[in-house]
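Project outcomes to date are best conveyed with an example. Our students and postdoctoral researchers have been running inverse folding experiments weekly, and each run begins with a structure described purely in tokens. The record below, which covers 166 residues, was selected by the lab manager from last quarter's runs and is presented without edits.
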């Protein structure tokens, strides 16, 4: 999940550059932290001082039910734990890509149980305003996702690891 600062053409050109660099970095392979660090160095070289890329990547190992993720500036994803019915933010993140060339990106690993949910959110959801200018906010986002995971249509599926985005 990626987001570039700016709007319209100010964001379009960096998005195209990032997409190409990401594709090449993925071809080179390596660990998730190595991929992030390579992306970050490249973004520091090609972006101006006011432009950066918020980027998060996740991977699931189905054989071990392990979710691995690294985060550069995105809102933390939510982990709904079906066994306890609790929502946990997966707190892992540092600077967006293109801010500091020497940033080290850590990989967070989380064990998943059957029926757990990992939910990535755009900052657009959190920053959405109602007619009176009140932000939807982090707490309401978490509560809404938790409610949907407990009572929503996704709860009715056969036990498995599933992913969905609001």
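After processing, the design step wrote out the following sequence:
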């Amino acid at each position: 999940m990626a987001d570039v600062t700016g709007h319209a053409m100010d964001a379009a050109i960096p998005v195209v550059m990032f997409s190409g660099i990401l594709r090449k970095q993925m071809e080179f392979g390596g660990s998730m932290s190595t991929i992030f660090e390579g992306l970050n160095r490249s973004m520091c070289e090609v972006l101006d001082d006011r432009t950066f890329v918020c980027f998060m990547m996740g991977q699931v190992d189905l054989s071990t039910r392990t979710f691995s993720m690294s985060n550069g500036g995105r809102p933390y994803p939510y982990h709904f734990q079906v066994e306890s019915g609790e929502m946990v933010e997966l707190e892992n993140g540092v600077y967006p890509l293109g801010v500091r060339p020497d940033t080290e990106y850590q990989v967070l690993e989380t064990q998943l149980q059957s029926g757990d949910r990992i939910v990535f959110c755009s900052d657009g959801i959190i920053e959405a305003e109602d007619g009176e200018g009140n932000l939807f906010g982090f707490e309401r986002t978490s509560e809404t996702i938790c409610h949907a995971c407990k009572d929503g249509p996704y709860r009715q599926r056969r036990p498995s690891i599933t992913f969905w985005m609001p």
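The chain has one domain: 2-163. Confidence is low (pLDDT under 50) at residues 155-166. The training component of this project remains on track.
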